[in-house]
Design goal:
globular; six-stranded mixed β-sheet; Carbon-nitrogen hydrolase; C-N_Hydrolase; C-N_Hydrolase_sf; alpha/beta; Nitrilase/CN_hydratase_CS; about 30% strand
Length: about 325
């Protein structure tokens, strides 16, 4: 157990179109995870900064776009952040003040294109890496560009052991966003780089998501930390599209959470939670990764490189 760190997943949602209040919420939840649970690493959901526009269509039609959709995109564009920016500086300041390593989903603005991105923020080094979602899902392609192979980091980080403070624990951390987790070759690429703490910012709140996370943890022999938003209609502007416009109710659920933490043998360590706002925390014994590799290493002794080979283009 000496090779152990403590990590949390945060279930919450964006304060829609209010960056300052969203950053305040981030700080409050990060400090709570640190002060109450002793967390050393926290994972926030997909699009926590910038927001996830559930049910929005941006008035897109095959062959046509209209002015209402363009106006909606302006609002969404202005809610996104550049990387780096004062917003990421604020995240780095909180990380430094608390000593907590942060993985967070943000909507990134780069010139005229938005990206669904995960950032890695170290309490000592600040912003150390980012990952852009390789393939936005379905209608997300209206509003987000595609990432490329140049932002597929597995970040090496040394932590102080949470059970034996004189000991240093070496870890490798990755992030895979929402339905990217259904891309087998992307998972295999991260496994090949030795990911041990496989972070999953997401907004998929279906019951089937737990099965996917447990499968990936078991397959990759890694800890999976899945952080999902929980949002209701009151968390969106009054005129935002909803599932049933004839039955608007501030308490109608838009995104139903389901955050959880899973061990390298597929055991659920915390969650899934359906609370509107929650912090799930677990001790991650990195030796469990090695225990799992004993009988299954999908990029090592349980692979057939003479039959199958993985090729990754990691250039910009």
């Amino acid at each position: 157990m000496a090779n152990t760190i403590r990590a949390s997943v945060i279930q919450s949602c964006t304060v829609r179109f209010n960056l300052s209040e969203t950053l305040d919420k981030f700080e409050k939840l990060t400090r709570l995870a640190k002060e109450r649970d002793g967390s050393q690493l926290v994972v926030f959901p997909e699009g926590f900064i910038g927001g996830y526009p559930k049910w929005s269509t941006f008035s897109c039609f095959v062959g046509e776009r209209v002015s209402e959709g363009r106006d909606e995109f302006v609002k969404y564009y202005n809610a996104a952040v550049e990387i780096p920016s004062p917003a990421t500086d604020r995240i780095a300041e909180v990380s430094k003040a608390t000593g907590v390593f942060v993985v967070m989903g943000v909507i990134e603005r780069d010139v005229g294109t938005l990206y669904c991105t995960a950032i890695f923020v170290d309490p000592v080094e600040g912003l150390v890496a980012k990952h852009r979602k390789l393939l936005p899902t379905a209608c997300e392609r209206f509003i987000w560009g595609q990432g490329d192979g140049s932002t597929l980091p597995v970040v090496a980080k040394k932590f102080q052991s949470s059970v034996e403070p004189t000991r240093t624990v070496e870890t490798k951390i990755s992030a895979t966003i929402c339905w990217e987790n259904f891309m087998p070759l992307l998972r295999t690429y991260y496994y090949s780089l030795g990911t041990q703490i496989y972070c999953v910012p997401t907004v998929d709140s279906r019951e089937t998501w737990e099965s996917s996370m447990r499968h990936i943890a078991f397959e990759g022999r890694c800890f999976v930390l899945s952080a999902c938003q929980f949002a209701t209609e009151k968390d969106y502007p009054p005129d935002h599209p909803v599932a049933d416009a004839s039955n608007r109710n501030p308490d109608n659920v838009m995104i139903n959470g389901g955050s959880l933490i899973v061990s390298p043998l597929g055991k659920v360590l915390a969650g899934p939670t359906r609370k509107p706002e929650d912090i799930l925390t677990a001790d991650l014994d990195l030796d469990d990764v090695v225990r799992g590799k004993f009988d299954l290493d999908t990029v090592g002794h349980y692979s057939r490189p003479d039959v199958f080979q993985l090729k990754a283009n990691i250039s910009p």
